[in-house]
Amino acid sequence: MKDAFGTPQSLLILGGTSEIALATARRLVARRTRTVWLAGRPSPALESAAEQLRDLGADARTVAFDALDAESHEEALGKVFTEGDIDMVLLAFGVLGDQERDEDEPLSAVRVAQTNYTGAVSSGLICANALKRQGHGSLVVLSSVAGERARRANFIYGSSKAGLDAFAQGLGDALHGTGVHVMVVRPGFVRSKMTAGLKEAPLATTPEAVAEAIETGLRRRSETVWVPGALRVVMSALRHVPRPVFRRLPV
């Protein structure tokens, strides 16, 4: 259960090497989170992330999880929930892809869609049902402003995030009144290994800033969090720009 300050005592991260997720875990462990599960493909990076959290005082464990292997999700995630209640699930896995390559290689584009959307639908529903059986918990889904409107520069990635965003919103509505809270997080450009080498977009942010916004959103029980907050206004305007004009914008 969450403590008196609203901090989850147990955390499950889907995408255990995500920089945003780990920044969030460090922030929560510094508060009062004690148990952290890192779900991801077995790797030295996953083990290193767990060890770093142990050094901060957390009981950090790893579990093998592959977003693309939906048939294994029930068993892999079921093991976590049989160990005890989970107060918060952070769905943080995803791939950016390579727009130019993916347009020429449809199977690469499909991989982006399957990872970012199909894998999230499978694992998200499994975790949501487990939280519902508990009668409490938060499911935090890392979406993206890229899902707000398809852009020429990244419409494959953006479309997968648009699907994820819509799914998470609908799931939140379906779980209303069950004791389970769903929060959608929409960061803009995040300076991370994932975006290294890419041209930085306006209003760029950091994993630490997203982590802070997640913690604040949890405390407020927000349903949608924009990072930075100014993006809410920006995207509201861009959403209504006529397509012929939008095509010519440097976005």
From TrEMBL:
SUPFAM superfamilies: NAD(P)-binding Rossmann-fold domains (SSF51735). PROSITE patterns: ADH_SHORT. Pfam families: adh_short. Coiled coil: none annotated. Its EC number is 1.1.1.333. It is an enzyme of class 1 (oxidoreductase). Keywords: Oxidoreductase. Transmembrane segments: none annotated. One of its GO terms (molecular function) is oxidoreductase activity. The keyword Oxidoreductase applies. Belongs to the short-chain dehydrogenases/reductases (SDR) family. NCBIfam families: PRK07904.1. This is Decaprenylphospho-beta-D-erythro-pentofuranosid-2-ulose 2-reductase. It comes from Streptomyces polyasparticus.
